[in-house]
Structure formats: structure tokens, C-alpha cells
Amino acid sequence: MTDDLLDRPPAHALLADGTTTCIRPVGPADHDRLERFYDDMSPDNLRLRFFGVSRRSAAMAADRACAHRPGYQALLAEAHGDVLGLAEYDTGGEKGPAEISIAVADGIHHRGVGTLLIEHLVSAARAAGIDTFTADALSENREVLRLFADLGLRTSRRFEGPETRCTIHLDEDDTYLSAVEARGRAADVASLVPLLRPDTVAVVGAGRTPGSVGRAILHHLHSGGYTHRLFAVNPSVTSVLGVPSYPSVRALPKTPDLVIVAVSAAGVAACAEECGKAGVRALVVVTSGLDAAQARALLSACRTHGMRLVGPNCLGVSNTEPDLRLDATFAADHPRPGNAGVAVQSGGIGIALLDGLSRLGIGVSSFVSLGDKFDVSGNDMLQWWETDGRTDLALLHLESFGSPRAFSRTARRVTRRMPVLTVDAGRSQEGRRAAASHTAAAATPTMTRQALFDQAGVTATRSVGELLETAALMYSQTLPEGTRVAIVTNAGGAGVLAADACAEAGLTLPRFTPRAVDELAAVLPDGASFGNPLDVTAAVTEEELRRCVDRLVGTPGVDAVLVVLVPTAVAAATGDDLIKALTWAPGRRPKPVVAVRLEQDLPVKLLPALDDGTIPSYAEPQAAARALAHAARRAAWLARPLGTVPVLDDIDTERAQALADAYLAAHPDGGWTDPRLTADLLGCYGIPQIRWAWAETEDEAVRAADRLRGADGRVVMKAHWPGLLHKTQERAVHLDLRGEQQVRAAFRDLETRFHGLLTGVVLQPLADRGTELFAGVVQDEVFGPLVLFGLGGTATEVLADHAARLAPLTDHDVHDLITAPRCAPLLFGTNGDGPVDLERLEQLLLRLSRLAEDLPQLAEADFNPVLAAPGGITVLDARLRLLPRHAQDPYLRRLR
pTM for the whole thing? Predict the structure, then answer.
């Protein structure tokens, strides 16, 4: 067993039935437990494992697992002190395939222990550079053969008499990730049943004092009509609010599935430990103010005893299913039953969303206040809503992400079934602004989160109000096929406001065709103006407006209709209710129709329409335009096929890893690589650099310049020393050097001004004309590698014209990166020079993404400028920074 694996902390993960197990490396102290593990096996299980039964089998297997030798790894799964299973691989100390074995204790088969162990073993093997497993099994051992076949990995079998030889290829492709994801989703949902569909609930800390949190939650559960058994835990009373009370969790007549903990911070860990020993499956800890030691003790109790945890420092949980009616919160009112799933970290935002969704009539399917989010996360809730049969709209407010890549995969899947909306208030940029390179300065936390949301198809809004505005539209209307909006108004000034709002939101106002104008003129009063906005005048009647809207909905080239209405004396005198023109339509129209009523008292309402439908009505046109823009972006995201990560040729990952390891062995604290190592690493990934040469003396510089001169004889000289980043700012670059004397003078100048710093110079031929771009990577501690792209040159930070996507990049991500910056038109030939080599530009970004994925040690990569021209793409200046980091498998199933 290698020291690397021994150093890995234990990982807690969910089995297929939702219970928790701990997976960790085997150590010498585990010998006796492993021997008992094998001794307790039935003869038949031992025979299938060892192909025979021997008195020495258990001791020999324990000796093998606890031995420390090259090329061998062993992982065990345990729960409540018992060993549940053991998985091993052994390369025999040689490069090549590893032989694996798996053993699971009697009585716990079919709970996913073996599959989970193999997944963790696969992750460890990949990290060690192993790409193939082999395994021998008796042909009658159908369970283990099925386990290997169902992993999602490419597997082949060869039958050798009574035995079967399996070969398992450890490719981490989408098939395998999807299989892991499906197993994880089933286990996750099973683990949340005691939390969100509990058969018995107890509230610890519910007292007689009015205003206490525990009493408020008990009152909500009781008054909300919770349909199953409910208890209070309080040693001082026998009843609270008519609910029977007991002195402790152990004293309850039935073990609760869910316990709400509302005791002091000092008592939380002890309460959790008592709950765990009693067999409780889920905790909601509303208590705030836990210090670090109390927090560790709480989480340790939950992991040891296999309890899912919401909180601490949270508002509680709700599930409005009619046969459950669980409201374990201390919000002011009970949530209205409905279709929206809500998960928030901020209790205040949770209350605002519950109130807003109830007021709109959308209601809530389930609500979880995640609080400090020690365990249950937004990712868990997305998977619950995906399968609960009630939720068709997901609303999130997340301040942090435990596993952004796992969240991204889940969200990409879920958001194809239902809209997933979030409030993204942004993060401080000050810490990143102080970073040393262009890339780090550009990769603000806000940009990182936005990249995650964009790639996952999550609709990110800037406020709770905007979230509710958008939710109202997506709940009630079909999505627009594009961004073309027809504005209808009975007041010209209001139409102008709506037109400005649409333009600011990125929507377009198409001109109506002559045929459309004729059709509209046939149903509208004299004096109507047929531009866009379409002014139907104050004289329009209810019936005329309805016909107008119906014709616009059927007009080609119109994707949505925005109707801006103001109250008029004319409508009042005739008794016309213009809003009925929008709501008096059978069923949902094939295109979205939204209203703006400037006199409206609330920011957004859902107006009842015929056949139980609704129409969103906004108090201002900006809100309506923002909601339509979000809906259009969602429609565009859904219309795109799923992206794929392209296969790249000429990649030498093994050599790149060896180069990085050698550098970090010589520089344990890491640092910026020199030009030669930088070029070697880029060469491993086929990233094109301009021709260059290294020189440490004046004579070497002259000879290098002679070799590099192009047809015009001009070269560039750049100073280098460790840590030099902004060469132009330091005046460490000489351009347009001609002839030997200019080269010598430039070298002497750099040598004089940077005496004691200069380690050498880089010479390059003067580059041809082209568009200067910027590409880079910054390795985020939480989100992983972020690839940035945009306008380059000396003004890259000042103009900040960058886009970002999280690696690994798909073909769609690369397209988005190239088209998102404001400078994008330059790349497509709008300046008259013709388009740049877009195919090679895409390849550059894909190869940069792969470099960042393969090398977790790559803290930053900074290519500036990258010269883009019709004839090719060339990196003119590159910097890489390596740090001693180890890869973490972002898709490995484990609890936080």
C-alpha cells in the first residue's frame, strides 16, 4: 500500500438503501478485525471468494490486506465498527494491469457495498496511473460477475474452465459517470426519505416558553396537520402544546425518523450522539453559533451513526404532500402546497421565497433551509425534486458549493426536466484583484459561479425579486423560441419604456410585415400605430385587444407578446376590462404573453385565466423584459444538443505529469516555470508557440537572432527571471531589433537594468499582424480549473473583455467562449480582414482545458498575447505556475 493512499482521509458514502458507510484505507491495526470479517463468512461465501475453503484463509487474507508493499491497495467499508466489505488491487509492483478482488460480509449483499468499494478503488487506481483491472471469479459467482458488468466500465470476459477472467478498462467516459450518477441518485433519494417523508418526528428543545424556536417548530408541525406521530422531548414536562413529551430521545415509545434539534450550541453534539445511538436517521439542527469543536462533534456523530443532517443554523424543512403535511420550520406562515422546490442557505431569503411563492399561487412542494450546509446540499435537493413526482420548478439560493462539478452534472440533467433558478448575488472581487497574473485577476468568483450556471443551464438572477418574476413566467407560460418581442400598449409613453427595457435585456423588437399590419389593422380601432411598440390607442376595446394579441401570437417572426396597459377613462366608461383580453383564452397560448400594469400594487402577480391557466402581470416593464430574457436563454439552452468533450490527438499526459513532478521535486513550494519547461509542457498538448530561442549571454543572443530572423530580419527580445509576469510594465521587452548591433545593445540594456535578476532572454521573430487574444486557466480550490478567453495584449486587464467556462470544455463550451466576449466580431472578419482560423482557435482552448484537467498542479496558465490570423493561431507569450497539489476525483461518491 502506498503512503499516498494511507494519507487519504476516510470517505463517508451512501449505500443503495440510503444508509451510510465509511470507506478508508486498510491499516496494520485492522488485522484482527479483517480476520474476524473472514471468519464470520459462510463456507459458501468463502469458497466463492477464495475458490476453496481453508482454515488458514482468513488469517492469510488479513495478512495480505495489512501488508505494505508497492503496487498494492486495499480499501474497507465499515459501519458501527463492523467491516462490511474489502476491495483490493495488486500490480505486483510492476507497471500494467492490476488484479482486483472483492469480499462482502454475509447478510448485507445487494446493498451496493461491493460496487461502492470498486468505484473508490477505480478512483485510487486512476490516480496511480493504472488503466486496467483484471479479476478471476468462479463462473457460478453470478453476483460478482454482474457487479463488474454493471459498473459502466468497458468489460470483457474470457471463460477458462470453471473460472471466468474479467478485464475492466478504467476509462472515465460519460457512460461510467452516468452509471455512477444513477447509483448515487438512487442512494441519495433513499437517504432523504427519513428527512422529507418521516413516519415519526420529535422536537428536542420544545419548551413552555412562548417565543422559543423549538416551541415554534412544534407548533407549526402540530397546527400544520402533520399526519404521522409527533413527540416533544423535554425532561420538565409531559406535554407541550398538546403533544406528548418525554425526557429523552431514548425514552420515546417509537424511534423517530427525524429529530428537530433546538437546544443550545453546547448541547447539540450530545443530542446528536443520543439520537444516533437510538437509531434516528435524520437531524435538522436549527441551533446557531456552534464553535469549531462543536461543529466537528456534530458532524462526527452524524457520520458515525449514519444520520443525514440539515443545518446547523437553519430555518427547518417542509414537505406539503397532502398525506404528510410536514412543516418543521419557524417561518411566520405555513407554505402553500404547490409545485416549486426551494433550497436556501439564508433563512431570510427562504422566508421571502416561501411568502412570494404562496402569494403568487405557485406554492411549494418541499422546502429545505440548508443553513451552514454541513451535509444535505442543493445537489441532494435537485435529485429529490427530480424523482418526487410533484416538483416542476426548482429555486435555489446557494452561497457555496461542496462539489461544483457534481452539481453541474446533476443540474444539467435536472434542468432539462424543469427550470432551475438561483439567486446569484456575487462575491467580493478584492482578493482576486491582488493576484499576480492576468488570468487570476480576470477569474473573479462571480465569473466562476456564472460559468457554472451557464454550463449547467441554471437560470441565475440577481435578486429575490427577479427570481420570483422569472419563476412566475416560467411557471405559467410556454418558453419563447427566440428573443423577438412584440409590444402592445394603449399608451405610447408606456410603450417607449417597454421598448427600452427590452433592448436593455437583450431582446429585439421586429418590424411587422405588410401582411401582419393588414391583419392587425382589421381588428384595431382607427388611429392605431403599427410600429413596434404597437400603439392600440386608449380607445381599444377588450375584444379588439384580444384579437390583436391572438394575431400577434400567430405572427411568424414574433416569439413573445408584451402587453403594457394603463387605466383609462375610456375603458372605465365602456366597462371594458382590458386585462381580460389576455386571460380570456382557452388553455396556454403557444407563445408567452405577459402583462405590464403600471398601477399594479405588487411587483408581480399571476392573473387567473381560462381553464385554470395564469398570466404573469408585472408592475414595471423592466421586470417583464428580464423574465422574458431569462426564458429565452433557457429555451436556447434546451434547444442545443448535449455537448461532448472532443477526443484530442498528440497528447502526452504521462510525459507532462513527469515534467510537473520533476519540477515540484526541485521546487517543493512550486512557482512559475521557466521558458524551456513551459514550452515542453505546451508541446505535450500540441499548443502552438511562435519559434523561440533561449540565450544567457550576449553572443548566444546574437546567434539565436540569426537563426530566428524571418524575411524582414526583425526579432523580439524578452527578459526572463523567476516571477517576472508583466514584461511590458517592467519595460523588459525590446521590439523590432535589426542586425547584430541592435541585438547586442538590447541584451546589454536588459543585463544592466535587471542586474541580479536576469537569468536569460527569450528571442522570437517579430510576429505577423493579427488579433491579439488572451487565453488562460486558473485552478479554483472549489470549482476546479476555469478556462478564460478574451481580448489580449497590454490592455487585457483594463478592458476586462473575458468569458469563462469550467473545464473540461465541451464543443459547445468552446463555441460559447469564443462568441461571448465583446471582441468576438473581430474573430469573424467584421474588420474586413476575413475570419481568423476558428478551428485552430477551438483546438487551442480544448488543449488548454485538457492540460488543466490532466495536471492538478497547474495553478495558473497565462497565454497573452495569442495571435489569431486567418492562417493560424500562435501563442506569443506563455506563463505557467505549478503548485504541489493532488487531484481529487470530483465525481467520486462521498458525503462531504
Answer: 0.89
